[in-house]
Amino acid sequence: MNNLVQHYPISPEAKAFYQENNYIKLKQVLSSEEVAHFNEVISAEVQRKNTQERPMEERDTYSKAFLQIFNLWTESEEVKKLVMSKRLAQIASDLMGCEQVRIYHDQALFKEAGGGITPWHADQYYWPIDTNNTITAWIPLQATPLEMGPLEFSAKSQQIVFGRDLQIGDDSEVQIKQNLRVNNFEHVIEAFDLGEVSFHSGWVFHRAGANQTDQMRKVMTVIYMDATAKLMNPKNDNQIHDWNTWCPGAKIGEVIDTELNPIAG
């Protein structure tokens, strides 16, 4: 687990690429041994906590997209080693250009064999956070070829306001896709090597394809925010839910410094 405590060099070119495009893919963030270890640990937690029993054909688009299990770092010391690691926190803060980051929350996103698309969306629609300095680490727990449904990005699309108010689902997939195409943003679809991790901002639009393999696509994600981020007055019911769930006790206009939002690293 040496990688997790070691510095990962972010070149000026890499930082500039992230600042412009609001996403980046970085190779060899984790070793093959670390990926195998966390695959085993996180898979066991997802199996323990999963409550999805409906067959795929009876689910809506969102439920077909993935099994979603939240805040595993609060229940597993092993998962906490990854989520709170110095390495991920350092990469997140370097890319955003801030001194330190806090965790907003983590979530395992396991796309089942035959699982459907993850529709176009922007994450920060859900977050009552007063800064654009938010970033998600998307950590595949296996090599992820195109047919398994890796994360896709619309480069530079953080500039687009249209679609930010759309909840993830069929409408967001159709409307955002059409708008991004009209505005001619580059649609980046690439496989992920073993140990490769992507980082994307809260406002860049992204999606994932269906899992056309017979294997589970296993991914762990961690959302980080600038350690100085404050709670803003929620703009929708989802943000009210997030306030109560992921930063309970935080006060509007004050730094989001709760037991669930410690500084990482």
From TrEMBL:
Residues annotated as transmembrane: none
Pfam families registered for this protein in UniProt: PhyH
Sorted UniProt keywords: Dioxygenase, Oxidoreductase
GO molecular function: 2-oxoglutarate-dependent dioxygenase activity; iron ion binding
The organism's place on the tree of life at top rank: Bacteria
Xref: InterPro entries: Phytyl_CoA_dOase-like
Gene3D superfamilies attached to this UniProt entry: q2cbj1_9rhob like domain
Protein name (Swiss-Prot/TrEMBL): Ectoine hydroxylase-related dioxygenase, phytanoyl-CoA dioxygenase (PhyH) family
